[in-house]
Amino acid sequence: KAFVERKKTVTKGYVYYSSSFPEWKRAVADTMKECYTGDPANPFPKTFKKTISGKLAKFGKKREMGKQMGYVAQLTKRVKTEGDAVFNLEIPFDEGAFLKSVETYLKEQLELQEMFVGSSDDDQ
Length: 124
Prior knowledge:
By secondary structure, the chain is mainly alpha-helical. It contains 5 helices and 2 strands. Helix 1 runs antiparallel to helix 2 (about 50-55), helix 1 packs across helix 3 and helix 2 crosses helix 3 (about 60-80). The N and C termini lie far apart (about 45 Å).
């Protein structure tokens, strides 16, 4: 028998956004803000890693600790150049409104027949 490859065509697209950060990210940012010394050269005290590890232990499994500590490392690096502004987890624009405003463009560029943009916070 001859093998005929059928190309699957994607006709629907789904884009979900969240109106808030996960609880563990907010806890990390809050803890880091509390520990922040204000000195860009040495932004956190020597006990910082122990403090943040203890806080993160409350939020999940050990296998997630790598992802969480990666987030801590990212914020630690950014705080050296951006200061305490990195602890503000508010998005300065309406993410949902923006995505809905470019929905037609995304649909056309991705060659979709249908496109759905919605909040992951909504019950579905």
